[in-house]
Amino acid sequence: xxxxxxxxxxxxxxxxxxxxxxxxxxxxxxxxxxxxxxxxxxxxxxxxxxxxxxxxxxxxxxxxxxxxxxxxxxxxxxxxxxxxxxxxxxxxxxxxxxxxxxxxxxxxxxxxxxxxxxxxxxxxxxxxxxxxxxxxxxxxxxxxxxxxxxxxxxxxxxxxxxxxxxxxxxxxxxxxxxxxxxxxxxxxxxxxxxxxxxxxxxxxxxxxxxxxxxxxxxxxxxxxxxxxxxxxxxxxxxxxxxxxxxxxxxxxxxxxxxxxxxxxxxxxxxxxxxxxxxxxxxxxxxxxxxxxxxxxxxxxxxxxxxxxxxxxxxxxxxxxxxxxxxxxxxxxxxxxxxxxxxxxxxxxxxxxxxxxxxxxxxxxxxxxxxxxxxxxxxxxxxxxxxxxxxxxxxxxxxxxxxxxxxxxxxxxxxxxxxxxxxxxxxxxxxxxxxxxxxxxxxxxxxxxxxxxxxxxxxxxxxxxxxxxxxxxxxxxxxxxxxxxxxxxxxxxxxxxxxxxxx
Length: 502
Description:
Blueprint: E1 4-10, E2 15-19, H1 20-26, E3 28-31, H2 38-49, E4 54-59, H3 67-71, E5 74-77, H4 82-95, E6 99-102, H5 108-123, E7 133-137, H6 153-169, E8 175-181, H7 189-192, E9 197-200, H8 206-215, E10 233-238, E11 242-250, H9 274-279, H10 284-289, H11 301-309, H12 329-344, H13 354-367, H14 377-388, H15 393-396, H16 399-408, H17 413-428, H18 435-442, H19 447-459, E12 464-467, E13 473-477, E14 482-483, H20 497-501
Parallel strand pairs: 3-8, 3-9, 4-6, 4-7, 5-6, 7-8
Antiparallel strand pairs: 1-2, 1-11, 9-10, 10-11, 12-13, 13-14
């Protein structure tokens, strides 16, 4: 399912959009000097994508905590132990809650250690919780410095390792890195090199302009243009945005940062007694009122974990009747079946990970206004595998098919769809699926892998594979008492139309 995020206006007055699904797969690097509008760009991206994907913001200055009021992000204060941060990060992936890790008030080394512990906790989450997450890291040069600074080597190594995992290995775990930096020269090259999408803002130093031009595939003489970019204007390039360098003016945002750029304001009128006002001794009560109070204590870890574990109710005014009609259980199940069948009909779905498919399923459920809690990932995998088998209603009600469903439960989840596709052909007496169809069901294009899957089923004692003198293959299911008709393993007529054309 393609979701376009509108970032602002492109050249020619057209809308500048980011393909969110492509961004999750290819990552993003944002560069611009202080005051160029990086934080504004990140805020726009976060606000526009908040309804579609889980988000995690590594916030060294506490600028993004205001997202909590508008979009329900949980603010995690980093003033706690590394073990606590790691545990909270694991709970965040499990419960799919958008968060802001507030590192404000910590020194640089503490920020590096806290961010590393949090990122590692998300990276090490169990496979069942590898849902897509947009991980935004502001001031990334602090956490992935190109050279050693005043911090200890241990802190730099831990932080750089976490950032490298995020950008290099995070995609397979559903983590999509979006990193922003003031200077490319200060950012570790192995971290910056993993991004395929770029938004380059105003910069002045020759080394940064040259590196930005290289990343965008521009000539060195064109690098001077980065000095002339206005605040909030960037040059975009990448598969999620544009195949050619595209000027983009970032649009407005709904929330604001706690810290804003300084504004000029007129000085007060000077008076003759100004010196007396400055040096006059203050009354006792005045001196007492200017004493700073201690900052509030951070929220206990137990409270944050409890907050993450709760199902957050939607804030809405009480109404006499529900806005949307209520579904009974039968209608709800029929709606789920309809959504799953629509997903199966998409040829590209076969090559998506389970986490991406489940995210698409949840979005479709919201679009259809499905009532109640959606099925968990394990149940979705099962229903998706059954739907991919293409079984008709009459055959699905037979005892033989029900027995085949019971046999498939003993297999790993990623093999159940393949088993059921072959089983339904046997139950119906249809020709054995081709290598291409079996590979497509597994999410691959490899005919060799398809043959290995059949060999695996045979080794488990579930099927018997035989090839006749004409090279046609049939698969028998001894426990079911049925067998497929002979079929040519090399044919392509049983593939989806789009796959067969390719």
